[in-house]
Amino acid sequence: MNETFINISKIIERDSKNTTYKFALLRGTIDTILDNSPYIKLTGDLIEIPLGLLVEKWIIYYYPILDSKVFIPQIHGTNNKIAFQEEFKPIIHFYNQFGGLSALYNDLRTNGVSPSVNKEFFSLVRKLKDTITKMPMRYIGGSIADSHYSIFNVHSNANLRKTNFQNAQWLINSCGTFTIPKDYYEAFKVLGSFVSGTDNILFKWAEFSVNASNSLVDTSTVIHHILKSPITERDVTVAKNLYKTILKEKGKINCVWTGDPISNYDVDHVIPFSVWKNNDLWNLLPAKPSINNSKRDKIPAANLLLKQKQPIIHYWETIYSAQPQRFLQEIEVSLLGNKGSSNWQQTAFTQLLDTSKYLIETRGFTEWKL
Q1: What is the pLDDT of the chain when averaged over all its residues?
Q2: How far is Cα of residue 52 from the mean position of the Cα atoms in its chain?
Q3: Under 8 Å CB-to-CB from 340, ≥6 apart: which residues?
Q4: What is the Cβ-side half-sphere exposure of residue 337, based on CA atoms within 13 angstroms?
Q5: DSSP H stretches of helix in the chain
Q6: Each residue's pLDDT tens digit, 248-280
Q7: CA dihedral 261, 265, 270, 275 (to 10 degrees)
Q8: DSSP states along 119-136
Q9: Are 359 and 367 in contact (CB under 8 A)?
Q10: Is there a contact between 25 and 137 (Cβ–Cβ < 8 Å)?
């Protein structure tokens, strides 16, 4: 079970982030499991779930996003249109006349989708089914396995047929089924609400504040304020000026990762800013722009850190000599703790190594090997 939890963490952090489909697939699966749907069944070591339940979840998730007056990107790139956006438009336009998502949901659960958009709804379901099975289901788990459909797999790919009456039961009967390993089902069942967010601490905090205010504030506003960080932007000014001085005095700087002499350099966050919002001087080291660009939000591998131990410590000592008070204060809090400063270089490097291993092996962040 512990390995499964680690794999889930790796999937969330490492798998493709070009679209929100991965998150919608995980959220939809978790919500379906937490609903304790009677349609879920055990088949050997696999759990079989109707794909129609997942399609219904995606309709619920993406309707408000696509209906929003504020553009909420769901995909990277210049087009910015998700695969089923055009098919969704006529459904949103029609149901917005009668109560929006709530009206559509009620029709799905009881009366069936309005005959006025029967054809359009069928096209949307077909596109959603195609998108789910050929994109996130195919690629999810790519960070932990070397094959497609390594976790989610289409079990029964039913031939979707248009009928005059389309509701939730029709979705369940018409879209086939998919499977996930039993271990993942058990993990989602135990901690799924924490992964998907409905029971996580931030959501509960926001929920409490909304109730305490008698709904004078909304959940999104509270979460926006809760998530505000004291450090919101990268700040490499001091480090960049320091390396500029070194370059002026010595005529060269060496890339911390390759050792190559460089006259044009970037200041790299050793532990990426996106992972750990930390602008400490010890975390800001010079790197070739091309190397920094390839590293991005990846975590340096343990072997790479060990290989480059001397250059890292060399730059730490250089920064310390120029900014002793700030450097020591920052490195004590982040890497030294109460272990003293008599041999701070080795102590700090060991902690950096441990942090790198933890972020890669336990938290699931992508390893960078140069």
Answers
A1: 89
A2: 25
A3: 347
A4: 6
A5: 2-14, 21-34, 51-67, 85-95, 101-106, 118-134, 136-139, 168-174, 182-196, 201-212, 219-226, 237-250, 289-295, 302-307, 309-322, 324-331, 344-357
A6: 787 778 999 999 998 888 999 999 998 888 889
A7: -160
A8: HHHHHHHHHHHHHHHHTH
A9: no
A10: yes
Residue 328 · residue 348 · CB < 8 Å? no
Bridge-based pairing of strands 367-368 and 299-300 is parallel
With CA atoms as reference, report the closest residue to 242 among 324, 134, 161, 132. 324
Q: Which residue has the tokens 């459904």?
A: 91
Is the pLDDT confidence value at 181 over 90? yes
Distance between CA 174 and CA 326 in Å, rounded?
64
Report the alpha-carbon distance of residue 1 to residue 189 in Å, rounded: 12
Q: Where are the domains of the chain?
A: 2-196, 237-368
127 — pLDDT class (breaks 50, 70, 90): very high
Tokens 């800013």 belong to residue? 273
- Partners of 156 in beta bridges: 177
**C-beta separation of 11 from 140 below 8 A:** yes
Burial of 345 (0-12, 13-18, 19+ CB in 10 A): middle
